[in-house]
Amino acid sequence: MHFDIYTGAVIIALLFLLLVLRLVRNGSLQERYALLWLFAALVIIVLALGPSLLDRLAGILKIYYPPSLLFFVAIMFCFVLLLHFSVVLSQLSRRVVRLAQEVALLRYELAKEKGREQKEVV
């Protein structure tokens, strides 16, 4: 069996596909993120199975070692995904701060109401 970078990329992408599907099945990964990862793995598989397509794209982009394009695309995808996660994390952080402030205000009002009730009873 001939093993090269294309075969390695296909094997890694298939293992990655299985991992993503398992994570979705266990409920550890939301479907919207799973679709992104599945799409990325499928793109890598298509590019790895069609080396002529990869060679043509590398030629257009003036990349002399075509498998480098495969990893360049994967790295760029990871950067975009990291940026997306940073945006989502920032939004969630703002929501947590707002919720903590609302809970603190509600506790304050509840304590104030209890104080009034105790004064009325005495």
Shape: elongated
Count of extended strands: 0
Element order: H for helix, E for strand: HHHH
> End-to-end distance, in Å?
89 Å
Oligomer: single chain
Beta content:
under 5%
Provide the low-confidence segments as ranges.
Answer: none
User: Helical percent range?
Assistant: over 70%
Question: What's the Cα radius of gyration?
Answer: 26 Å
Query: How many H/I helices?
Result: 4
Structural category is mainly alpha
Largest sheet: none
Kindly report the average pLDDT value. Answer: 88
Write the layout of secondary structure elements.
Layout: H1 5-26, H2 31-49, H3 51-60, H4 66-121
Helix pairs in contact: 1-2, 2-4, 3-4
What's a concise summary of this model?
By secondary structure, this protein is mostly helical. Helices cover 88% and strands 0% of the residues.
Explain how this protein is built.
The mean pLDDT is 88. The protein has four helices and no strands. Helices cover 88% and strands 0% of the residues. It is mainly alpha-helical and 122 residues long.
Short descriptors:
mainly alpha; 4 helices; 122 residues; 88% helix; 0% strand
